[in-house]
């Protein structure tokens, strides 16, 4: 896991490497300062030697300035490296998510992916910066301080070696107990994001049903859950600081106690043993060790938090798409013919019941095919197999006489345009949205597609016409306008197969009829599949497929199905109330 995450450093390796070098230099200069101070006290101030005071004083100033300069350089390079690391992490995660199949996306909720791209990456960025700077500085300071302390008095410095194992043992014990709590915290964060997302997307429904209080209570409960988990974790982490302070202040008391005795015994003479300057140096080194241990404590807490984040990020980075290209995949779709050969499909491999069962179907290139069926009859599941948004469990789906699994995915999806049930427009002008279908489309091609989708009329009524700005999610256009814009966008792809998944449900029957007539007359070579709830939307199709419970119940023309299919006849009569249907 660590190797994969560190691979995201990439172009910031230089700053990542320079930071520890600057930190080591900074630590070295800081470690020199207590020794120079002890020399200043023992050989300058105590002996009233002005030349020694000036010499050691200037050395102290030089060491302090040098420490400041390399410290600034260390901070700058550490910030640049960690920010770049986070940027690359987000890029790699987002890039991998773009390659996910629908089944991969189903494994991660939208809220979870958002949390991983934001909160989790930020946690890892902070941990990376702390490890790259403080994680190097603290151990180096401890090692240097111990070395210089041993130079002053090896016997006094043994106190450090006795206390430190106790401290590290306590930290490890805390770590083992805290990590599982943070794992639960970030899973709860996912649920929080899902609640917020659902609320914002469905805010009109929430307000129309006066469910604001219910949504607030739901949000409050999950926020409280996060609060409780964090409090639980922080209570255990709170033992970290007292443990560290007990250990380090015990060291200082012991050093002061035994040091004072040794100074009295030596007569404060450097030749006979410990001096006041030496004791000052030892106390300063003990304070530096204290500060370094505090840094380690901060790093320790950050690692506990970021460890869970790292595991969640790693899961996204290493998730492999279920749908990949074969070697030497076919990059051209011959025509829009479609054939389902004994297809069985489930969203979950271990599902008790298949979504689609033993589907056999043949559609000629250029045909207009209607699909009817009740809610849950798997109409959308059927057509999602054509552009290989999912892979079949058994059997095969062929487009242009070739199994879709043998095509290059990009080539296949360029040949299949699909307008889904949930129409999505992005923030930007109408032209920018339409050019999702074809980035190089001319203004003339855009207008022609919109005329075919019956969208040109209402677009020209806007003050800015095709340059009208669409708000995020298309909130400033009606449902029917949104559907027609999405159909026009799909037509700009010049597809060999066009799938409209209940994409005219929000338009009136006259407009629906005009759209169908345009599709039939102006793109005769394109295979057109229309999923609809209204019989009027499919009755003039070349063939109509009636689905029920994940199976094809009947296939035929309108007249044939009226005679042979009870489900179709019941739907027709219920919508037409026994009269003649006008389209």
The radius of gyration is 36 Å
Give a count of the beta strands, DSSP E runs of length 2 or more. Answer: 12
Domain count: 2
Question: Mean of the pLDDT scores?
Answer: 84
CATH topology of the largest domain: ABC transporter transmembrane region fold
Indicate the CATH class of the largest domain: Mainly Alpha
- Give the overall form: elongated
Tell me about the biggest sheet? Answer: 6 strands, mixed
Distance between the termini: 61 Å
CATH architecture label name of the largest domain: Up-down Bundle
How would you describe the oligomerization state of the chains in this entry? single chain
- Number of helices, counting only DSSP H or I runs of 4 residues or more: 20
Would you identify the regions where 5 or more consecutive residues have pLDDT less than 50? Answer: none
Main β-sheet, spatial strand arrangement: 6-9-10-3-11-12
Q: Helix/strand/pairing class, anyone?
A: alpha/beta
Q: Going by CATH, what is the homologous superfamily of the largest domain?
A: ABC transporter type 1, transmembrane domain
Helical amount? 55-70%
As a percent range, the share of strand residues is 5-15%
């Amino acid at each position: 896991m660590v190797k994969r995450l560190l691979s995201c450093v990439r172009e910031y390796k230089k700053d990542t490497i320079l930071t520890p070098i600057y930190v080591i230099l900074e630590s070295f200069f800081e470690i020199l300062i207590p020794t120079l101070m002890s020399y200043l006290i023992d050989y300058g101030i105590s002996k009233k030697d002005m030349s020694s005071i000036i010499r050691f004083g200037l050395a102290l100033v030089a060491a302090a300035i040098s420490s400041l300069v390399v410290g600034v350089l260390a901070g700058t390079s550490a910030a640049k490296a960690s920010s770049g690391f986070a940027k690359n992490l987000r890029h790699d995660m987002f890039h991998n998510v773009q390659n996910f199949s629908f089944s991969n996306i189903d494994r991660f909720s939208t809220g979870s992916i958002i949390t991983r791209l934001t909160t989790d990456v930020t946690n890892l960025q902070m941990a990376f910066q702390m490890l790259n700077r403080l994680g190097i500085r603290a151990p180096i300071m401890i090692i240097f301080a111990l070395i210089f302390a041993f130079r002053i008095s090896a016997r006094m410095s043994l106190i450090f070696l006795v206390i430190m194992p106790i401290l590290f043992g306590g930290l490890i014990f805390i770590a083992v107990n805290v990590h599982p709590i943070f794992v639960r915290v970030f899973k709860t964060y996912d649920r929080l994001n899902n609640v917020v997302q659902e609320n914002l997307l469905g805010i009109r429904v929430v307000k129309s049903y006066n469910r604001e209080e219910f949504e607030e209570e739901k949000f409050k409960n999950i926020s409280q859950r996060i609060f409780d988990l964090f409090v639980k974790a922080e209570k255990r982490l709170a033992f970290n600081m007292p443990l560290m302070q007990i250990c380090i202040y015990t060291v200082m008391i012991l050093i002061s106690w035994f040091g004072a005795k040794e100074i009295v015994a030596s007569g404060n003479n450097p030749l006979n043993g410990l001096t006041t300057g030496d004791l000052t140096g030892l106390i300063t080194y003990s304070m530096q060790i204290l500060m370094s241990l505090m840094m380690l404590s901060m790093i320790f807490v950050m690692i506990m938090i970021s460890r869970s984040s790292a595991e969640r990020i790693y899961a996204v980075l290493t998730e492999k798409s279920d749908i990949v290209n074969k070697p030497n995949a076919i990059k051209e779709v011959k025509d829009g013919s479609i054939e389902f050969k004994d297809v069985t499909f489930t969203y979950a491999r271990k599902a008790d019941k298949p979504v689609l069962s033993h589907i056999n179907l043949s559609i000629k290139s250029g045909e207009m095919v209607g699909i009817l069926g009740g809610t849950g009859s798997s109409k959308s599941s059927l057509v999602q197999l054509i552009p290989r948004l999912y892979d079949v469990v058994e059997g095969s789906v062929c487009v242009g006489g070739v199994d879709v699994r043998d095509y290059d995915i990009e080539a296949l999806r360029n040949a299949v345009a699909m307008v889904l049930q949930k129409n999505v427009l992005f923030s930007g002008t109408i032209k920018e949205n339409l050019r999702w279908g074809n980035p190089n489309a001319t203004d003339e091609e855009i207008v022609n597609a919109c005329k075919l989708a019956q969208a040109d009329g209402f677009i020209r009524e806007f003050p800015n016409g095709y340059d009208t700005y669409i708000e995020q999610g298309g909130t400033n256009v009606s449902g029917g306008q949104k559907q027609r814009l999405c159909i026009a966008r799909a037509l700009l792809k010049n597809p060999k197969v066009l799938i409209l998944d209940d994409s005219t449900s929000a338009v009136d029957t006259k407009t629906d009829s005009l759209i169908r007539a345009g599709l039939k007359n102006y793109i005769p070579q394109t295979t057109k599949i229309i999923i609809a709830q209204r019989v009027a939307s499919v009755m003039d199709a070349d063939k109509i497929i009636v689905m029920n419970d994940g199976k094809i119940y009947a296939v035929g023309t309108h007249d044939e199905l009226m005679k042979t299919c009870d489900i179709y006849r019941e739907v027709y009569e219920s919508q037409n109330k026994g009269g003649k249907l006008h389209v």
